[in-house]
Structures are given as structure tokens and as C-alpha cells.
Design a protein that fits this description.
The chain is mainly α. It contains 14 helices and 2 strands; from the N terminus they run H-E-E-H-H-H-H-H-H-H-H-H-H-H-H-H.
Amino acid sequence: MSVSPHSRRVGRLLTAPAIIMLFAWMIVPLAMTAYFSTLYYNLLYPDRTSFVGLENFTYFFTYPSFWTSVVNTLLLVGSVLVMTVVGGVAISVLIDAHFPGQGIVRVLLISPFFIMPTVSALVWKNLLMNPVSGLFAWIAQLFGMTPISWFSDWPLFSIILIVAWEWLPFAILIFVTALQSMDQEQREAAQMDGAGAYAIFRRLTLPHLTRSIVVVVMVETIFLLNVFAEIFTTTSGGPGDATTNVPFLIFTQALLEFDVGAASAGGLIAVVLANLVALFLNRLIGKSLTA
């Protein structure tokens, strides 16, 4: 059924206000960020504001913590993706089999995803990883070992564990949902032909989960590039710059050093990096969906 030109015009007219509002909602902050990135604008010295062109970008690129923050961001994103995808697939396959209390187990596995990042970080910091009164310290002492001071000895790894624990339920939710649509007749036929559990997983289950894995990687990457609350709550970027990522570095420039110009330049750099990642993921997903 074809749509008349009049109906198309009416449809565009009705959707125009929403589109214009969304465009303004996006373009106004971006334009203001671009404007402030060309200024020397320090909140402590507002009377010294002046146009500096691209100097803020040069300053941000040559800032001692910049490349460290980029490496930390990539390590954080990559490590969490590996943990959540591998762990999510393994756990999803295990709980896909029918057993007593299956529904309760699924709810418990998914529930950490709904905990706020700040609350999650505080739980890990004070109840689990505390070197004096934490659960891990108690377990270490139980076996005669010296408790680990997680946020001093393994700061970035500690952040990775916290963030992976938060995002693992999301991966499990997507993978379990995907497994529900898997053709059970193929699995039964494979079992009748003598295929073992590993062969079924490799030849049937894993190919079936390919698209879901790509979606999980895309969604998690977008959000993991913006991890902030966990770092701010536990380590504040330290010790040194061991856990400083790009968002936390921008926060440092804006609200600790009051340098709005440099923070705006960092924000634009982060936007470019995020768009490059999004472009790569879009191509990756396109190949997966057409495969």
C-alpha cells in the first residue's frame, strides 16, 4: 500500500517538533563545548578569559596524564568486555538447562545490573575489598595469607572487577534471551547423532549467540567509555594516575583545576574517540548481521 505525498508531508510536520527539540538538545551543548574549547577560561580567574584557538587541545594532548588515561580507558573497556562476554556465555549456557529454582537463580544473577554504580562501588570498597574488615581479607586470613590492599596494590584491576560485576548481568540477560529462541530440534538431532556437549556448544550454541555477542559488545563499549562513578568513589584516579581514565581526567580539569577551556577540549576529544569506536562497531555489527 503506497503512502500519498500529502500523508508524508503531514507525517514530517507532526514529527518536526520532536526532531528539532532533539537536535537542539544535542547541538547546543556541543556548540558551547566547542566555543569554550577555544578560550582560556578558568573559573578562578574569569576576568582573564581570552581567545587561545587550539592551544587547549595542544595542552590536553601534552598533559602528563592524557596518554595514561587513554591506555587505562582501553584496558578497562577491553578487560570488562572479555570478562562479561566469556563469563556471560558460560553462565547463560549453564542456567539454560532446567533445574529446581531456575527462575530464582536467573533473577539473582540479573539483579546486580539494577544497582547504582556508586552503591556498587561502596559495597566492593567497604564490604569486600577492605584490607582490614573486608570479606576477601577474612578469606585470606582464613587460609593463613596476607590480605591484599586491593586499591593500593591492584587499583585498576579492582575497578575492572567492580565494573565487570555490574555489567555481567546485562550480558547474561541478553544471552539467556537469545538461547530461548534456539532451535531445540537441531540440538536433539545432534545429540541423537552422538555429538557431545562441547561439539553442540561449538557448532550450534556459539554461532547462534554471535549476533547477541556483537550487540553486547556494542552497548557495553558505549557505556564503558564513560565509567566515572566507580573510580571517583573508590580511588579518585589514584594512586598516581593508575585508575585515571579519560572521563575522570576531564572531570579533574573542569572541577578540580577549574580549567573549563581544557576540559571542553578534552570533552571534544572524547566525543571524537567515542564516534570512532561507534563507527567501528557499526561496521562490525553490519558484517555480523549480513553474515
